Amino acid sequence: MSNRRLCVLGAGNMGRALLSGLLRSGTRAEQLAVGESHAAVREQLARELGITAAPDNETAVAGADVVVLAVKPQDAAAVLRDLTKVLAARRPLLLSVCAGTRVQDLEGWAGPEVPVVRAMPNRPALVGAGISGLYAPLKVGAPLRATAEDVLKAVGEVVWVPTEDALDVVTALSGSGPAYFFLLAECMAEAGAQLGLEHQVAQRLAAATLHGSGLLAHATGQDLAKLRAEVTSRGGTTDAALRTLEAAGFKALIAKALSAAAARGRELAAASRN
Q: What is the pLDDT of residue 1?
């Protein structure tokens, strides 16, 4: 982050994950500001992260080079409209992690002079292992894009998408994706228990398999289909399980699920404009 000052609006899970990641990556606490109306949360931020949070957003934003909008999507309009004057005067980079909230709306609430980048991180950002999809309109130049990357890289990997609509797919795939993997692991643990394992043992096996498989896929960088094939011996136990999943329409079901998530993201974006 060099010597840039960054303000986070919203000290929920993602806001705190970004703050923690930035501190781990070398950003000094005095470079970070937070707007937080709840005194207990301000005290917690000071105690756990060494960050002094302001009781109001206007005080927190003053002097910031980057403003991360990490509030609930339904609160974004009210938060930004209250800050229009201070944002117009400073023109910081507005980096929004609000799911489904479009650039056009963000510019309308913050002011057209304020450069906007949208990001869709995911929950593994809480442990520094997230991945974020980023989008910026063409008028946002390379230096500001690089700044946005620096912020999100503090909690994991980043990828850029060419259109804003593609962020709906990012949301469906990686934003919501951890829940799909957790559900699969949960179902595997339940099935293992039904087949005779102790519940805690089945849970531990499922969670460790989820963790290890993710590490293996990430570390090798291999095509996912190839990794799957390497675990699957023809006629073996894995082959029997995969054939059962395929016969039940597993691939089509996953495609349908992601399509539903992407569609819901578009619906929520449309609702936020009303």
A: 61
Confirm if 31 and 8 have CB atoms less than 8 A apart. no
Q: Which of 117, 135, 167 is the last residue of a domain?
A: 167
In angstroms, the CA 73 to CA 69 distance is 9
**Phi and psi (nearest 5°) for 7?**
-120, 135
Task: Tell me the two tokens of residue 29.
Answer: 């606490």
Alpha-carbon distance of 46 to 110, in angstroms, equals: 28
Distance of CA 92 to the CA centre of its chain: 21
Q: Is 16 exposed, middle or buried (0-12, 13-18, 19+ CB in 10 A)?
A: buried
The token pair at 122 is 């995911």
Q: What is the pLDDT of residue 139?
A: 95
The per-residue pLDDT for 273 is: 67
Phi-psi region at 91: left, alpha or beta (left = phi > 0; alpha = psi -120 to 50)? left
CB-based contacts of 109, cutoff 8 Å, min separation 6: 76, 77, 80, 81, 84
CB 134 within 8 A of CB 152: yes
Q: What is the CATH number of the domain that holds 87?
A: 3.40.50.720
Q: Which helix (H) or strand (E) holds 117?
A: strand 116-120
